[in-house]
Amino acid sequence: MHYPWWYVPFLTSPMLIALIAVIHVYVSMYAVGGGLFLAVETAYAYRSTNSRYLAYLKEHTWFFILVTVVFGAITGVGIWWTIGLASPLATEALIHIFVFGWAMEYVFFVLEIVSAFIFFYFWGRLPPRTHQTIGWIYGISAWLSLVLITGITAFMLNPGTWIERQDFWVGFFNPQFLPQTIARTGGALLLASLYVYLHAAFYRADDPELRGLISTRSTRPGLLGAVLVTVGGVWWYLALPASAQAALAAASALNILMVIIFAATIVVFAMLYFGPYRNPEWITPGFALLLFTFGLAAIGAGEFVREAVRKPFIVYGVVLSSQILPEEVERFRSVGYLESGLWTRALVAERFPGALGGGGTIDEAALLALPESDRLEAGRVLFFNACNDCHSVADGYSSVAELMRGWTPEMIRSVVEHPERAQFFMPPFAGMPEEVDLLTEYLVSIARPYPPGLQIPGGG
Fold it and tell me: Does 328-446 carry CATH code 1.10.760?
């Protein structure tokens, strides 16, 4: 059974997920890298008996908690809310497949929250060794949360042999697990450096020696992180399924984003090394903001590319981007897309009762005999169920009205009938021939004409 569709005007629901998810990644990666940074640096400050550096680390911990625990929790809830509405079948599949993994992740998440608050609110009231231990409990818990989430999200891109074996650990340790874990760990360390350096640039410390120490030590995780991002990114590409590599090669926008990822990573590495690492006095707000922007560009572009290359799937090989299972396609083509869904069947019964045959099933031929306005409405229902997850209607992201500009009805019908032949990263249409006619009629009604004044030689 397919779920009801959720329409997000102009932006489309997948782009809304991407927007919230990228913002959350900016915070969640800092939660991991920043936690490890605080654990290491607090131990260093205690070991070197540097009370001024300890005082700074306490100030940064307050900033860290506000960003990661407070804002991070809001964006985390936002992700679950949007994926539950936009991709309910994929969300259901991932919960069922990895229920044990989610349970482990929630345990580590609770450990993160508790240890973070103890680490900050008991600062100065715990023995140094105990305080350091709490910091390490947070840092390790946060990194293990990253590992668990990465195993699940990596599965979405390449499940490996899970489809044949249906085993939790086979699915978790998929071909994308190690490269994405390396890349995300690197991203977490990189973002930690950028957040710390940005915070330090605005931190009022009159002691040049302290500012230099903060500057130098805050850049070390970033240098390592940039290397890990590069290594993990190359391995990520090599571990892609063939169709994902083809989708990446076929999309010019994704190629541009790939260039941005590696160029921005190199720029950040160079700025960190030749800037604050070699010249600690370069701790100015302007330089810190520029460095932070380049880091966000690299991480954000990487997340967008990772999401985009899964087409024609949401969960590779498991859930199609049209929100149905691959094994359901042939059945839907034999009984009808509208008939196969609880919600679509109820909608037809309510709005087009004349299209119901004996036994309350939908008579596809009767749908074609409906008045034109009703046929267009039925085609619109098919569009929002089969196409809405990737396309807006007339205006917005990947608008079908613009994509079909100037197409003939025959061209439109050909693509509706076999979209996977027009573009290999589109899912097959899972409906009967009559439903192909209904969707074609609707798309013809919204397709835009050639731009005025455009002359097509030999085009008539």
Answer: yes
